Amino acid sequence: MVFNKLLKEYKKIWALGVAKSSIYYDLTIFSPKESIKDKGEALGILSTLKKQILTSKTFLDLFEKAKKQANSDFEKGVIRVLERELDYYLKIPEDFMVDYNKLISKSSNKWLEAKKKSNFKIFKPYLEQIIEYSKKLANFLNSDKEPYDVLLDLFDEGMNMKKLDSIFAIKKELKHLLDKVLENEWPEESRLKDLNYDKAKLRLLIVALLRSLGFDFNRGRIDYYEHPFTSNITNNDVRITFNNKNKDFADVLTSVIHEFGHAIYDLQIDEKLAKTPVSSQENMSIHESQSRFWENIIGRSKEFMSFLLPLIKEFLNIDTDEDELFYYFNLVKPSLIRTKADELTYNFHIFIRYEIEKAIFKEEVSVKELPELWNDLYEKYLGIKPNNDKEGILQDVHWSEALFGYFPSYTLGNLLSAQIMFKIKDFNNLLSEKNFAAIRLWLKENIHKHGNIYPPEVLIKKALGEDLNPDYFIKYLKTKYLKV
Ligand code: MG
Q1: What spatial distance separates the first Cα and last Cα of the chain, rounded to whole Å?
Q2: Tens-place pLDDT, residues 129-146
Q3: Residues in a beta bridge with 378
Q4: Ligand 1 center from residue 461 Cα (angstroms)
Q5: What would the pLDDT profile of 248-296 be if each residue is shown by its tens digit?
Q6: How far is the centre of ligand 1, averaged over its atoms, from the C-alpha of 262 (Å)?
Q7: Which residues participate in catalysis according to the annotation?
Q8: Which residue from 119, 333, 435, 463 could staple onto 188, CB 3.0 to 4.6 Å apart?
Q9: Burial of 70 (0-12, 13-18, 19+ CB in 10 A)
Q10: How do strand 237-242 and strand 230-234 relate by DSSP bridges?
């Protein structure tokens, strides 16, 4: 009874969320320039309303009563998720939050300016402030823990430096493997990267591809936008964006498949969970494991090329074969830009950011010294050095938005994606048969349908029968890059 009342009250918060994400998507993709400021203001007001409902006496009373009665996995999940959210709203003072948000919006602008001018000095004073604010925020949430551990937990419930250090110890083996693959002269370049083709046809190819993978256009859409992202508006309206400015069609297609992986997660959550606090997966590494699974494990596999080839020929009028496509989708070359990195080098970009973030919060490095530390670590892990701040420390938006502790989830997602592949029975056969429906079903039954009922570690154990184990990722890479 009390649980139903709590869920009924929560629906107001859900509805505000739908309004917020609809406005946000509209603002980002469709809005005339002059309307952006007004919509930003509207979003701010909706956030205040959300806080008012969530921290109202009515809601808190219901929550406390329901907490005592929570029994099923679903009910316990609801309480766990709400408790985390309430923690955030109740522990962080309102005026701090207002100043913090103002600082973030200022520093994002300064970061963009600094990146355009490739000058870290422009961003430096803002980054210093952002770090101070992030430390304070961590302190409000839990002053007993190290600030960086608190921040890691915000993006990945239960994560901390101790666990990450042990998981990221695979970097030694990864480095060894990377060196070996480079020694074997695995292709670094492909002529397909610079071919001309009809961009409008690529858009049609993307739609055909999404349909084949199982994207339901009655429950979602795709739009053009500078940066690819997925927006979960409701469990029946999940949107993705793509960018085909670039000639490099492998880059365009893999990023579409990546966003499809995020979208299919949201679309396959049990409909019984819709409009409740557990209706979406909020843990970044788990969500990212799904996008990486579709992008890399499926989308860059040899089997997938036999599926793609006819589409490439038909829509883009490009003459190629499966082998050439496979190498083109899997070029290996240490490079400076994280978002352009291949499977073998990608995680080093994350190890570098993780090492730097740890040093920042342990106060082992000053902001002034960061560009040099950045460049030294690139030299150490990838043997290359940025020539300027734009292709170095200023490349990612995250720090300007105070997203410290976010980067590790990308690598955790990669590791998990390989582990999932080994867990799916007959995966290679399913892939050879292009039986995407069976793969989707496995993901739904074992991962997606649960929404956010379980914390990441519990969900992983439930779905995979063991804890996160990075060995699978190494095994996957070895099979792919050393034996093909
Ligand atoms: Mg992603």
Answers
A1: 59
A2: 999 999 999 999 999 999
A3: none
A4: 22
A5: 999 999 999 999 999 999 999 999 999 999 999 999 999 999 999 999 9
A6: 7
A7: 259
A8: 333
A9: middle
A10: antiparallel
